[in-house]
Amino acid sequence: MSTLMKSKVRAKNRQKRRVRVDLASIRSVDHDCGGCATTEKSCCARYEVCVTAAELNRIILLLPEVVKLCPHLGTDEGYDNVFEEVGQGLFALDTTEDGLCTFTFVLDHKIRCSLHTVGTALGLPLNKVKPKACLLWPLSFSEGDEVLSVVDDALSFPCNSRRRNQPRQLCSAFLASMELVYGEGFGTALDRKAGKGSLRTTLIRCR
Ligand code: SF4
Fold first, then answer.
1. What are the residue ranges of helices labelled H in 28-152?
2. In terms of CB atoms within 10 Å, which of 21, 62, 65, 133 comes out highest?
């Protein structure tokens, strides 16, 4: 490959890895997840969650452990097919009769994610077990040229609250999820930008 071609490929890859961030909206909200007591207030019931083929394959490997928490996933032949293809390489997760994601279970009267619980018990990084959309929520990303911001209905959930006086530093839960999803250093770099008062910025993700 010629040097010119190589630099064009590098520039294209760099563009693909760009994440535009709406810091103004992210700075305005705090998030603290302790599990939900009711379906109506659970983010695991409000949205249709989609996973990529890579995420689906990782979830399938966990099913032997997940089924111990979610026995409804087991069948005589093995496991229920809970993935519905909704687009090329994109699969929606099935829901239970009351509208919850099929991977939820109840522990100590709180709705929990079995993928999260199994991943933690096995010592796996959560970005290897949970869908990206779930890791980031209540942040959401748009496809293509990725833009990260807070979902419109965030404040209708008790785990999210509007921050008083809008401090410049970002909520620690957001920093942790962004580090997981976009790679080490992403959250710290963003927090630095927020500390300087930026309202919007663009960063290159490592993952
Ligand atoms: S995968 Fe886990 S976090 Fe995501 S919607 Fe399902 S139960 Fe909730």
1. 43-46, 53-69, 114-121, 132-136
2. 21
